[in-house]
Amino acid sequence: MNRMRILIVEDEGVLALALESMVNEFGYAALDPVASGEEAVTVAKNEQPDLVLMDIQLAGEMDGITAAGNIHSFSNIPVIYMTGHSDEGMLERAVLTSPYGYLIKPVSMYDLKVCLEMTLREHARNNKKQEIRNR
Prior knowledge:
Elements: E1 5-9, H1 13-25, E2 29-30, H2 37-47, E3 51-55, H3 64-72, E4 79-83, H4 88-95, E5 101-104, H5 109-134
Parallel strand pairs: 1-2, 1-3, 3-4, 4-5
Helix pairs in contact: 2-3
């Protein structure tokens, strides 16, 4: 069975482990969580996950929105943002990177599962449409 691989980018260790546990419980394969935008870009480039679950406020110089923009410069990996801060400016910046979702922390198990499933299905549909257009 080829399980979808999900990269979790979260700098709060306990939350990263909880998200990893939930992702695995849903039947996906969670990659080892990373805590910085810089690590997220490197792992996304090297591992090519099927989806990135990205906190916006991260350890390091690069926030999650900048990291997602960098990831989109070399791939079309879908990103779902998570944040504990939902101000308008941050939302406007996030929207510019075309995320598939935007979850406000604390994230419930149900909301996370629904968002992951919807994102992976929509992304697969978009890829099929693109393949048909490219023929």
